[in-house]
Amino acid sequence: MRLPWVRRGWLKTSRRSSKRYQVRRWHLKKFFDNPPQHLKKRIASIDAEAINYLLGRKA
Fold this sequence. Notes:
The protein is mainly alpha-helical. Helices cover 44% and strands 7% of the residues.
């Protein structure tokens, strides 16, 4: 099942199998760097360490 953000085209994925999708790191970075206006507060509430981990950044 794809996330609403993917269905709306805000976050790009690649199909890995019939039920699995993969989000590339650069697509995730682009999404976090420039989210849709109404999602900015939700994105800001995510722990910065979790975002850095997902993006492969060092602390």
